[in-house]
Specification:
Blueprint (H helix, E strand, L loop, with lengths): L1 H13 L33 E7 L4 H17 L3 E7 L3 H14 L5 E5 L3 H6 L9 E2 L1 H5 L4 E2 L2 E2 L7 H6 L1 E2 L2 E2 L2 E6 L1 E6 H6 L9 H12 L9 E2 L4 H11 L5 H5 L12 H15 L12 H9 L5 E5 L3 H11 L3 E5 L14 E8 L4 H14 L2 H11 L6 H10 L1 H4 L5 H7 L5 H4 L6 H18 L3 H23 L2
Parallel strand pairs: 1-2, 1-3, 11-12
Antiparallel strand pairs: 3-14, 4-14, 5-6, 7-8, 9-14, 10-12, 10-13
Helix pairs in contact: 2-15, 9-11, 15-16, 20-21
Length: 473
């Protein structure tokens, strides 16, 4: 009975999850979960069907997954990988948990980084984990069904984030970091010869930009999203949670009123008070902030590197040059490192050996050097393996598209510390919402930063305590 209570409690928690960092939202569901094929080893045709549920529905990203599945199926006629699109990460996970309970689960699902703790805690009605570690499933094999195992080539930032208790649980797919995009035409007009690197340098640049006779009235923007707060904490070497950000044990306390939090959001408010930072008036407003950049209402945009290709091309279409750089950091403390965002592919437990090998072979095919490189070119997400990075360098891609390399360089520059890895938390997305609401209060209602964050800290810790009461053991 307790495991069933935990299952439904987990569903209630995950129901709060929304797509994070702009990396997993989509607008429609093209297939219903109830129509998913089973993952039994072979049907009357001798073909093993494996469902792959993804949280993308746009033509570019969903189309990429469908094309790779078609190529894999052609090379492995005994298997049929069927890509099913869902509206969001939330929908994918909810449907997968229910499908497990009904006995008809998919083989693979697409789920995002902030919900890693929830995925690890998910159990079926019998109390068994829903997901299986890909490390455990692959073992010491170097190839599966003729497909080379790529785990050892996964870039460190992604490997380290998704390694829990020594096991690499899921296969990274869409991985990003927060970087800055600058309209260098405006910067040149203001006499700024180097892209700002620190908070003080951004502020100094903004003073010059807003002084331009025909320049923008403001200077910089970014979405009000908890992910950027997490990035700044990582840069400053500060923890979001105890137990080393939930990496040496379960996190039971968060620190939303830490000195690093107050410093970052205090700088953010100061920039807004001076008219340098533009708040669109909406939390998690990815589109609004990007549109302000395209319209040249601001000269700089801190954003997800997942849109490096789109933003670079969009600037060119609007008639200005775009240059990407590291996310500006607090120059008064040593820089430790930025962290990742995005999502991975999780493998459901309980498949027979034939089906599981097909799922594992597809996972490794999906992220081989050629496919990972192509995915990066299409989107701007980082190439997830070093082999893909090497291929892109050999092809001259980075010489042609230098903005595409910035996120990879930024992640490679990070120290391997709990702060720069990012936190593993229960109720993480709800906690992110507590942060964004507090920031909006501070920006819009001119509240004291430390006082408002102290309230947020109480609210966030209550959410974490409620989760840990159910799942902390």
């Amino acid at each position: 009975m307790k495991s069933k209570i935990r299952l439904f409690a987990l569903l209630a928690v995950i129901a709060l999850i929304v797509a994070a960092c702009g990396d997993g939202s989509s607008t429609d569901t093209t297939e219903d979960a109830g129509d998913a094929a089973t993952t039994d080893a072979g049907d009357e045709t001798g073909v093993t069907d494996i469902e792959f549920w993804v949280a993308f529905s746009d033509e570019a990203r969903l189309g990429f997954a469908q094309e790779r599945a078609a190529e894999f199926n052609a090379a492995h006629p005994d298997y049929n990988i069927n890509v099913v699109s869902f509206a969001s990460y939330n929908d994918v996970f909810d449907a997968a948990v229910l499908a497990v309970d009904s006995g008809d689960p998919p083989g693979l699902i697409h789920f995002f980084e902030a919900a890693t703790r929830q995925a690890l805690d998910a159990v079926d009605a019998g109390g068994n984990p829903i997901f299986k570690s890909v490390t455990e499933a692959i073992g010491d094999r170097t190839e599966i069904l003729g497909e080379t195992v790529v785990l050892d080539s996964v870039v460190d930032a992604a490997r380290n984030y998704y390694t829990v208790d020594g096991s690499f649980y899921s296969m990274p797919w869409n991985t990003s970091s927060a970087v800055m995009f600058s309209n260098t035409d405006i910067l040149d007009a203001a006499g700024i010869t180097e892209i700002p690197d620190t908070w003080d340098e951004v502020e100094a640049a903004c003073e010059k930009i807003v002084a331009l006779a025909d320049g923008p009235s403001a200077c910089v923007t970014w979405p009000n999203h908890g992910w950027f707060v997490e990035q700044s904490l990582g840069q400053q070497g500060a923890l979001l949670a105890n137990a080393d950000n939930g990496r040496t044990g379960r996190a039971t306390e968060i620190f939303l009123d830490s000195d690093a939090m107050v410093d970052y959001i205090g700088w953010w408010k100061d920039m807004a008070d001076k008219g340098h930072y533009v708040y669109t008036g909406a939390q998690r407003d990815w589109d609004g902030t990007a549109n302000a950049f395209y319209a040249q209402e601001v000269a700089m945009l801190v954003y997800s590197s997942s849109d490096a290709t789109v933003l670079t091309e969009g600037g060119a279409d609007a008639g200005f040059n775009v240059e990407a750089s590291f996310m500006p950091h607090n120059g008064n403390v040593d820089y430790v490192g930025n962290l990742i965002g995005g999502a991975t592919i999780w493998m459901l437990d309980g498949m027979d050996d034939v089906t599981q090998d097909g799922a594992l072979a597809f996972l490794n095919f999906f992220s081989n050097a050629a496919n990972a490189a192509e995915w990066h070119k299409i989107t701007g997400y980082i190439p997830i393996t070093q082999d893909a990075v090497d291929l892109l360098e050999t092809e001259g891609w980075y010489a042609e598209s230098p903005n595409s390399l910035v996120a990879s360089d930024q992640l490679a520059a990070a120290e391997n510390t709990p702060a720069s890895l990012g936190a593993l938390l229960g109720n993480f997305v709800a906690i992110r919402d507590v942060i964004t609401l507090a920031i909006e209060d501070i920006l819009v209602n001119d509240l004291d930063v430390a006082e408002r964050l102290a309230v947020a800290n109480e609210e966030g810790n209550k959410l974490l305590t409620e989760y840990e009461t159910l799942f902390g053991g």
